[in-house]
Specification:
Length: 316
């Protein structure tokens, strides 16, 4: 009852719609989709499209090989090779497409998606013991691909639970809330609250720092923003900024956001920004406190690489 003689004709009946579907959605590898400002859960869910697309692609390939009565070993081997080279070609083309880049993890999603779908399909044509093996393998591959989405979902829950704390660095998944030119890692060397802080490895680029991008954006009803920086070395000037969603429509002009700076001597420095200052930060308009989109700290034109630690970023 469970042989490929039953499964393959079923796929054969929908092979044309599936082929048309893949052709129609294939431009999405190069155009469209979430952008830089999209929620990270949406971005990660979108990335799973690689897994689904190549899973369907593998079923279409395997339908052809079943008609040729190829062995299971051949079907898996050929699937891996074809998916790898097609996926690699897509990633290489993306290098030349604005807003796209080459990523090995997407290539992993391509190949693993095909293997998961193929494993589940083959599980219907083998013995009961082998069926368990193939279906377990398919489920495991799916689970591995969903781990980044699950981690981000859990961190979104923590962010909402801990608000008005924006980042305390007590969990490594918090690092996904930040980006920027400086390397950021969790550190237990020094901390102001809890066990960990965020260690920033600053470079000698013109601007080097980190930006908090994923957080609760409604700051209305709060009195201000506070964060603490530990400087283990010589005196340094730290710049910081806050902007709302309207800031991106103005070519991210310096005058269209809140800007501040502080001279950091050795040890911990706690910086407190009254919300009234953030509100009046943009030159020609009030800040939209219900749609705050970013907070960043950075240094300018350092002669040497520096390390700073950040902790307890919160509203009050």
């Amino acid at each position: 009852m469970g042989s490929d003689a039953y499964v393959t004709p079923l796929i054969g009946k929908i092979i044309k719609p599936l082929t048309i579907l893949l052709i129609l959605v294939s431009p999405l590898f190069f155009f469209g989709g979430p952008d830089y400002f999209s929620p990270r859960l949406l971005q990660e869910a979108w990335n799973l499209g690689h897994f689904l697309f190549f899973g369907i692609f593998a079923l279409l390939l395997d339908n052809h090989w079943c008609e040729k009565q190829r062995s299971i070993l051949f079907r898996f081997s050929a699937c891996c090779l074809v998916l790898f080279f097609v996926g690699l070609s897509i990633e290489l083309i993306q290098i030349a497409v604005p807003g796209r880049s080459f990523t090995w993890i997407d290539l992993f999603r391509d190949v693993s998606g095909g293997l998961a779908f193929l494993s589940w399909k083959i599980s219907s044509s083998v013995s009961s013991t082998q069926t368990t093996f193939y279906r377990t393998a398919a489920f495991f591959i799916l689970l591995v691909n969903c781990i980044p989405l699950g981690r981000m979902g859990l961190d979104e829950y923590r962010a909402r639970r801990d608000f008005p704390l924006l980042s305390g660095f007590e969990n490594s998944s918090e690092l996904s809330r930040w980006n920027g030119g400086a390397e950021l890692s969790q550190s237990d060397s020094v901390s102001l609250q809890g066990k960990y802080s965020g260690m920033m490895r600053l470079t000698t680029e013109k601007y080097s720092g980190i930006s908090l991008r994923h957080f609760q954006g409604d700051w209305s009803g709060r009195n201000g923003l506070t964060f603490s920086i530990f400087n283990p070395g010589a005196e340094i000037t730290l710049h910081y900024r806050v902007h709302d969603s309207a800031h991106r429509g103005d070519m991210q002009a310096y005058s269209n956001r809140f800007n501040g700076k502080a001279v950091l001597s050795g040890g911990w420095t706690t910086i407190t920004i009254p919300m009234a200052d953030i509100l009046t930060g943009p030159r020609n308009r009030p800040m939209d406190l219900t749609h705050i989109e970013g907070f960043g700290v950075f240094v300018i034109r350092q002669n040497e690489r520096r390390v700073l630690y950040i902790d307890d970023v919160r509203l009050f």
